[in-house]
Amino acid sequence: MSWEKEIKAYLLNFQVLVSISAIFIFLYARKLVRSVAVFYLTGILIGIFASFLIFGHLFQKLIPKFARLPFLFGGWPLSAYIYYLTWRNFSIIFLEYRFYAILYLGIFTIISLAVCYRMGPPEDERSLNLMEWSLQIIALALIYFFNQIQEVAYALIFFVTFISIWRRNASKIWQFSRRNWNRLRIRIWPTATKTSLRRGIFGRGILALYEIRLEIVFFITFFITFFLP
């Protein structure tokens, strides 16, 4: 019974971690797809995982032609099984074959960095928008499928979508609300608005007259001091 509780606790912690990561990815998808560091890191990971497919393609070239058809249909399951074995026995492989593992990762990391550097980060705005939307769709799928309670999943999806829309259009929403509120206030309290406007105009007129009066006094004083005996 204890190991069942440990497995359930592990699955629960894993689901919570995936949900938090998905929320972070959804909210910061716009910055992630435009980050150069994320671009190179993603390229390295794709290059390392794609290396198994490269080895499978090379192995397919070496086998006879009559055996290529079964390998064609069994190549993808074989690659998936290799991924599974590598992930499951990663610690054992890294400890027993540390030098070869580091050499393998280093070679394909350098190759992936060279390819990413040659291609460069994407600059087309439409491509970046498509990448951002794809990343957000993946994040929403992770939130939905890694929550056992559907109500919680729906609430999280609604929450992150609302926060994302609000963050992107907060200034527009504020300006729209303020403009409509001013219009509504003028319609509801037109007298008070006109009175305050008149008071403001009257106050600015008094201030202007006071400044003119000070200039006249200064001019007269200056004239008497320097020009009259």
Overall 3D shape: elongated
The total of helices stands at 9
How would you spell out the order of helices and strands? HHHHHHHHH
Distance N to C terminus? 114 Å
According to DSSP, the number of beta strands is 0
Largest sheet: none
Give the amount of beta strand, in percent.
under 5%
Helix/sheet category: mainly alpha
Helix content: over 70%
Rg from alpha-carbon coordinates: 35 Å
- Average predicted confidence as pLDDT: 72
Q: Which regions contain 5 or more consecutive residues with pLDDT less than 50?
A: none
Structure description:
It is elongated, with a radius of gyration of 35 Å. With 229 residues, the protein is mostly helical. Helix 3 packs across helix 4 (68-88) and helix 7 (125-145) crosses helix 8. It has helices spanning 2-27, 29-33, 36-62, 68-88, 90-96, 98-119, 125-145, 150-188, 190-227. The chain contains 9 helices and no strands. The mean pLDDT is 72. InterPro entries: NEMP_fam. It holds the Pfam family NEMP. Belongs to the NEMP family.
